[in-house]
């Protein structure tokens, strides 16, 4: 959490300097303050795990999802974006040692699937290269909710702790006219969660703790409208 606060503080200081340096024209309400985008997003986890008792690592599947986001412009350059979407991932361990319960010393354990709801809020700075090409950068916070867990056919249950993370982004809007545009956006979310696997169906009292880093890369492409 301290890392999140420090990151946002740094971004706020950087952007506040930019706001002071803006021309007076940027402070007048001669721009559209809202925009909405619809994007297709590829979610690519950069996963790793510290798994207790059985060891090994984790594999989390890639997903392709629809996403909607809303952006509010405080000035022509400074904006806040909220993204909304949900994604499903298949999960299994890799190279785990379950020889103590009669299995292999190097096996993959199916942990079923889980849905993630990761609303992410970023503070952005928008550049105006020209009337058509408008790149931006941003940083912010994420809170991921894990739900609809399907533990699969191997273990009794899998529990994921909801978790805060932080995010960085870069992207651009390519204006088609003064209202509609095409968007390309890349986000990196740094996200970790505590996972508890209930394997009591395999061995009495077996509970397997794990610290899982998901750290997904989100690559989005879509269309938007200013209003």
Automatic annotation (TrEMBL):
Q: Does the keyword Signal apply?
A: yes
The biological process GO terms on file are: transmembrane transport
Superkingdom, taxonomy of origin: Bacteria
Which residues, by range, are in coiled-coil regions? none
Q: Which residues cross the membrane?
A: none
What's a GO cellular component annotated to this UniProt protein?
Answer: outer membrane
Q: Would you indicate the residue range of the signal peptide?
A: 1-21
SUPFAM superfamilies annotated for this entry?
OMPA-like
Keywords on record: Signal
Q: Which InterPro entries match?
A: OMP/PagP_B-barrel, OMPW
- Entries under Pfam families matching the protein: OmpW (PF03922)
Mind telling me what this protein is named? OmpW family protein
Q: Organism source for this protein? A: Flavobacterium arcticum
Species lineage: Bacteria, Pseudomonadati, Bacteroidota, Flavobacteriia, Flavobacteriales
